């Protein structure tokens, strides 16, 4: 992650921090959000490490013609956008009138839809904010004062349009079906978008993925983590039931009686499991 992206992420985290303490009912959401941001940041760091910047005065080297296949990744890092996207995806044509676009958003119960051309290529995205700006101009055509005229000049000009193509935001931010879920989550977070159109290599719409779907894919349920920890314990121990496992918000608590010589390797293996936030060792010596 670059210094600029790091500062942007810190600014975003500060802006989303509530002005008052989290209530007990909100704490699980806070923990899930922290785990989500950690996963996204890890994906961004890994991508930066895999793609080093070229030296000054040199062009970025081309990838080899026949690269060796990557080893299979562990879930959820191995999940791809195609595994979590919605199909089919709702869309509107570029010549759809303003009121029909508003009805389409209400009918689909979404906050934004891709705008496509006659060949189903995604040319932009029209959202509730675009329609609100249009509705505001219809209600009050003239904006008062120099600040009102200059503030978000592009949005003000765009709001005079009457069709999806003239109201939409472009160029669109899209992802590919084969893209990693973690990378798509970073794209959504960086662009501050709730929904991302999914396009094929020709830019044609094939689906849509939301932030909530990316979040669920990145953060596994505690029950799933517990199942994996218990399976791992069965591989490490001759008597798997000698250790009991409990998981809450990604924190694994291990209790029971066991030869202390076996504990360090077991705990290290558990810490390496995806989405494990911490491991609490309450194992007694046998």
TrEMBL record:
<feature type="domain" description="CBS">
    <location>
        <begin position="168"/>
        <end position="224"/>
    </location>
</feature>
<feature type="region of interest" description="Disordered">
    <location>
        <begin position="1"/>
        <end position="77"/>
    </location>
</feature>
<dbReference type="InterPro" id="IPR051257">
    <property type="entry name" value="Diverse_CBS-Domain"/>
</dbReference>
<feature type="domain" description="CBS">
    <location>
        <begin position="85"/>
        <end position="147"/>
    </location>
</feature>
<protein>
    <submittedName>
        <fullName>CBS domain-containing protein</fullName>
    </submittedName>
</protein>
<feature type="compositionally biased region" description="Basic and acidic residues">
    <location>
        <begin position="1"/>
        <end position="14"/>
    </location>
</feature>
<dbReference type="Pfam" id="PF00571">
    <property type="entry name" value="CBS"/>
</dbReference>
<keyword id="KW-0129">CBS domain</keyword>
<feature type="domain" description="BON">
    <location>
        <begin position="221"/>
        <end position="286"/>
    </location>
</feature>
<dbReference type="InterPro" id="IPR007055">
    <property type="entry name" value="BON_dom"/>
</dbReference>
<dbReference type="InterPro" id="IPR000644">
    <property type="entry name" value="CBS_dom"/>
</dbReference>
<dbReference type="Pfam" id="PF04972">
    <property type="entry name" value="BON"/>
</dbReference>
<dbReference type="InterPro" id="IPR046342">
    <property type="entry name" value="CBS_dom_sf"/>
</dbReference>
